[in-house]
Amino acid sequence: MATPDPLPTPSTQAGRDGLAALLARPARAVVALDFDGTLADIVPDPERSRAHPGAVPALSALAPRVASVAVITGRPADVAVRFGGFAGAPGLDHLVVLGHYGAERWDAATDTVHAPAPSPGVEGVRAELPSVLEQADADGAWVEDKGHAVAVHTRRAADPQAAFECLRGPLAGLAERHGLIVEPGRLVLELRPPGMDKGVALAEYVEEVGAEAVLYAGDDLGDLAAYAAVDALRAQGVPGLLVCSGTEVPELADRADLLVPGPEAVVGLLDALARHLDAP
After folding, report:
1. Residue 72 to residue 50: CA distance in whole angstroms
2. Kind and range of the H or E element at 129?
3. Per the confidence metrics, is the pTM higher than 0.85?
4. 34 annotated active-site
């Protein structure tokens, strides 16, 4: 078998230690990934988002060689499964999708989703949101109903960033009235219950699996909580590698151990890891 191409070198010692631990003990490692912007390109209409064509083949090659692969996303779990093409894919028996920041869970082994009842606060926001958007005069903003959360996108507005800034205050007030928080992202403001974040989801899953190494890849502000969870795990002696997909969010890119240009490069990294773990 040919020697696989060299893996990229993380820029930090902690990242190099995390990668070395993953390669040395893959059966005790968790590979966790965001969906939009990491496994799938960001598109104007989130309903048209799909995983990169190489994502499932790369994950199918990597997943049998590690303890588990987890996709951690703000989307509903069943939506991420459908848009990712994960259901029934060979080699993904141990794949888990933690949707709504961990509030929902889909397991490939059973093809079932476990989810709590929606928060009453989300129902209240859903009812008030049309009038709030009308009063804010944010032309072009539109609402994505995620069931356990509601997201307001400004990517289609004539001036997306201006619309985003215009809505920050009104949506923060709306969220506060209903006991929710606002999670900003790339031209999106998501209103959701507190206590739901990718850091909590990742930490709980790593503990469940008993992982001794973790890789986390993300692209947006919502991934900062997962980065913080990896930092906490490192402090507890669990090596970790932080990967940033793209450089559009400096707050994330500046904390990453490894920068890659976007989903295609993330898929390339996953494929390269699988090849290295398969090499004699």
Report:
1. 15
2. helix 120-136
3. no
4. yes
